[in-house]
Design a protein that fits this description.
The chain is mostly beta strands. It has 2 helices and 22 strands. The strands form 5 sheets. Strands 6-10-9-8-7 form a 5-stranded mixed beta sheet, with no helix packed on it. Strands 15, 16, 17, 18 and 19 form a 5-stranded antiparallel beta sheet that branches. It binds beta-D-mannopyranose. Beta-D-mannopyranose (BMA) binds next to strand 7.
Amino acid sequence: MKYKIAGNSSANIPWQERKDTGSESPVWRYEDNPIIKRNPIPGVGRIFNSAVVPYENGFVGVFRGEQTDGIPHVYVGRSTNGIDWMFENEKVHFVDEDGNDYMPHYAYDPRLVKVEDTYYIIWCGDFYGAAIGMAKTKDFKTFVRVENPFIPFNRNAVLFPRKINGKYMMLSRPSDSGHTPFGDIFLSESPDMTYWGRHRHVMSPNGQWWESVKIGGGAAPIETSEGWLLFYHGVSSTCNGFVYSIGGAILDIDEPSKVKYRCKKYLLTPEEDYEVSGFVPNVAFPCATLQDNETGRIALYYGCADTYVGLAFTTADEVIDFIKENSECNENDLSEGR
Ligand code: BMA
């Protein structure tokens, strides 16, 4: 292997070898996509834009369950193979530090990241408009909300899986409270998961047509020997609405606001029926990866058309080389140093 993935080996992650599809992309889809179909739980019409992590001998995830009243909440699911998921019928019950009920009005696009011995869930909820909500758990039974990290409006907060220079690090995308027509990725740091500051610009839409409207963090960054590998979403606008594709970038390992490489081509764009048609057509929305450091294999989970969950695969070597070969930045020239 040319590039190394840091962390523990997770040999049982889902995997399927590439079949030649004619695509030049280093990312290929699971043949039996989508892995989560409509009406997966009573009272939930669609699950999509959801995140998973290795847990015990298998995997656990937090899922965006679009209830049949139209309101999204977070549901827990468990799987032994990362493909077939069993969901709890009840949405996650969040409490405050004293154990009192503390439910968000709604919660969508959850991310799930383990830092040290704690799992953090980060979602978009309501705080006088769209804003980031956060909670922690150690056992996936008790979910304790922590302070909202940012003032409104914000979406797509993605925590790094370890502290950097002694600080927790989080990407986010300041927004408006609607279907935001802009979006750049910023980085914030915190000594304690309560106070966030030292905000830095990471990336803006950079002129590539497939991501010309807005971009936002996707899966938690993967630590590799080349830097932090980031799968993110990039949005373009057409006469029929937005199109969400998946992009790739590599951030500096010690100073992740610095973009080392950013692929000017998308890695995955809506092509299959389950991506181009559904509740919101033409959405591929990456939210999580599972990776194995022994083989360099990466399994990427992405929401499809705001309706299903899809799975795609790549390897660290293939995707990093593709990003490097097709990199066009110096992204940091776009900002004023910060
Ligand atoms: C964004 C979010 C995502 C969704 C996307 C496409 O603003 O609402 O949850 O996948 O739009 O509809």
